[in-house]
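Researcher: I'd like a structural prediction for the single chain below. Treat it as a standalone chain; there are no partners to consider.
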Amino acid sequence: MFAEERRAKILEFLRRHKSMTVSELAKILNVSEPTIRRDLAFLESKRQIIRTHGGAIAIEYLSYEPTFFEKESLEKSAKEEIGKLVNDLVKDGDIIVLDSGTTTLEITRNLEDKNITVITNSPLIVRELSIRKNVEVILTGGTLKKGTLALVGPIAENTLSKLHADMAFVGANGITLDAITTTNLLEAEIKRIMIKIASTPYIVVDHSKFGRTAFVKFAEPKEVSAIITDSGIDPKWITAFKERKIQLITLGGVGR
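Model: Treating it as a single chain, here is the predicted structure.
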């Protein structure tokens, strides 16, 4: 089978099944997993698919959002690294906003028991902070989006719009030089407001999110104070963001 024919088959399978793993595709097409990974990289460069952890989805399903628990184990060490970086930024007396997501939950787990106020739309973050004696917690309220366990909608938006924070830590599904994106319109609006109400808004994303574009744009990198990521980021992105004068914070230090 020629490469072009194999890639056409991959697209056909992804469109039929929405998403598939590298191992599934390799078995069906009777080729090695490295061959499939190269094919997926080619198809992604043509904006026909989006690669995910261990597989891919067709471009038609960019609004597809894995559940919270499906995502929780992905890039675990990277999220822990981001959590430690955020802990160093947060000081006693700060008011911070934590978006709902697996990265921000890991941030919460790495926060020391400081005298801070946390505003969040995540019931799981509230549960995590409920035993912290020195942390005051404000839950936005709203409608529970069951897949991602985020509180969204007019109630959450109204609560957030009346508040002010020193810092916000907001997750994303994709980030490029021109766009920060997520998969859902309601969550995108919450993220926009979180960025707006914070004096210093940060985007928190692991290295796998760079170069990806999801369904809804909610900000541009130049609109936030910095992007916090892990040391696994491809150096080409560090160079690219530096050229745009967009600040990146990683374990190796601050790049601009």
